[in-house]
């Protein structure tokens, strides 16, 4: 009996959702390695094994693809609402603690290395005002603050309001971004352990004792 050839087999037809997921996964991998400017729609098509037009049918344009990658792959999960639903110490509605949330966020990011690399590459690329995500990243600190300010955090009484904690939040995010860059390089470090060393500097004793 003659051996079965590729042309003899029926092509497996994937659902639109499955194909879109493949496209976005490939785009994440390529952009995290080459950057947005170094990745073409054809590169994504080649990685998935479809035509360029096949990719465009799902994403519309390269700029749309980047938006989907950022919003649907990176900018999901690890948020305060998920932390509140986790049942972890410091996540209760009447005892919501900012340092505990940051520990949760660092732990969450430590489990998605490629997406953190994607974010780090885009963070540098978006200094270019012509980059499709320039405005999104330029507003990132303010948008994160607006989001955090919507929750009832338990903070030390020496702060008259959560607004006074804003410099601490800004520094924590800056430190987190820097540690993540170091984590992506060799020699390897443990992201959670590294954050644990910085946390007492960001939330020092005795000010934050009982509020971590």
Automatic annotation (TrEMBL):
Protein name: TetR/AcrR family transcriptional regulator
Residues covered by the HTH tetR-type domain: 17-77
Alphabetized GO MF terms: DNA-binding transcription factor activity; transcription cis-regulatory region binding
Keywords, alphabetical: DNA-binding, Transcription, Transcription regulation
Species assigned in the record: Bifidobacterium scaligerum
DNA-binding region per Swiss-Prot/TrEMBL record: 40-59
Superkingdom: Bacteria
């Amino acid at each position: 009996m003659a051996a079965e050839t590729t042309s003899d087999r029926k092509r497996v037809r994937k659902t639109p959702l499955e194909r879109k997921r493949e496209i976005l996964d490939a785009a994440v991998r390529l952009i995290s390695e080459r950057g947005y400017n170094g990745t073409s729609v054809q590169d994504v098509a080649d990685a998935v094994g479809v035509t360029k037009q096949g990719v465009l049918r799902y994403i519309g344009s390269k700029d749309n693809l980047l938006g989907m990658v950022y919003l649907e792959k990176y900018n999901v999960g690890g948020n305060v609402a998920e932390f509140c639903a986790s049942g972890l110490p410091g996540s209760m509605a009447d005892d919501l603690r900012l340092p505990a949330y940051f520990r949760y966020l660092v732990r969450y990011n430590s489990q998605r290395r490629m997406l953190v690399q994607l974010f780090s590459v885009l963070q540098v690329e978006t200094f270019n005002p012509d980059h499709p995500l320039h405005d999104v990243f330029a507003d990132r600190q303010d948008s994160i603050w607006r989001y955090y300010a919507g929750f009832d955090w338990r903070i030390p009484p020496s702060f008259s309001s959560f607004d006074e904690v804003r410099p601490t939040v800004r520094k924590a995010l800056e430190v987190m971004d820097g540690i993540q860059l170091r984590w992506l390089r060799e020699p390897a470090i443990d992201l959670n352990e590294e954050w644990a060393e910085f946390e007492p500097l960001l939330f020092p004793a005795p000010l934050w004792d009982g509020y971590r």
